[in-house]
Amino acid sequence: IEQSAYQNDKLAMLGKIAAAIAHEIRNPLTSIRGFIQLLRPHLAQLGKDEYARIVIGEIDRANDIIYEFLNSSKPSTPDKKQVRVVDLLKEVTLLFESEAILKGCDILLEDLPSSTTVCVDVKQMKQALLNIIKNSLDAVGESPQSGRGVIRISAAEQGAKVAISVEDNGTGMDYHTQSKLFDPFFTTKVEGTGLGLAVCYRIIKNHGGHIQVDSTIGEGTIFKITLPLC
Ligand code: ADP
């Protein structure tokens, strides 16, 4: 399924709203954090330092989310560097190693061309790939009927481009979901944000790339990304 310019407009708007909201939320968080720091010795006297620690930890987590969100939804020009596709993919999959073991899922890196390079904003591109793989892990986790979860990641040069594919044998999606999945805030998950793929779409478009999905309910899903070579 191809995505239209319509999504781009929605994402640009989302970026502006996100920046405004994040700014407004950050200020009160900073003052809450400050006051808790001031209360900390008193709480410690009451044997409740643990509470202060939790509050501060949660404030920091909220700040991190806002930071990530701002970073990924801001219509920014990518800060590009030349990087080998194989390194990019290896580094991202490494982040999922423990989660994959916990879920009893295999993440397989297959047929990776060793010399192919792309010019990308490494942080952004890792974020985009991470969002796709995270979804695959969720999908195989929810689909025990298909046996052991397998996520296959491969890449191949195609003319002046590299095609990267991420394939899972998870739940798959119906047509409705496939047509909506790049929309900001579209989610079928109880605790989903619906932002992962919207952000991913934006990052890949910002790099002059392309993303499409092919999925069958009960069989699995394949995401194909193409990026221009260096
Ligand atoms: P979130 O993960 O927070 O729901 P995303 O934008 O990352 O947000 O994904 C949107 C929706 O697309 C998911 O809720 C899910 O329904 C669907 N989806 C994405 N990737 C997959 C996949 N690999 N297999 C099945 N469904 C998927």
TrEMBL record:
Residues 20-230 form the Histidine kinase domain. Signal peptide: none annotated. It catalyses: ATP + protein L-histidine = ADP + protein N-phospho-L-histidine. Its EC number is 2.7.13.3. It is an enzyme of class 2 (transferase). GO terms for molecular function: ATP binding; phosphorelay sensor kinase activity. GO terms for biological process: regulation of DNA-templated transcription. Keywords: ATP-binding, Kinase, Nucleotide-binding, Phosphoprotein, Transferase, Two-component regulatory system. The keyword Transmembrane helix does not apply. This is histidine kinase. It comes from Paenibacillus oceani. The chain holds residues 227 to 456 of 456 of the full protein.
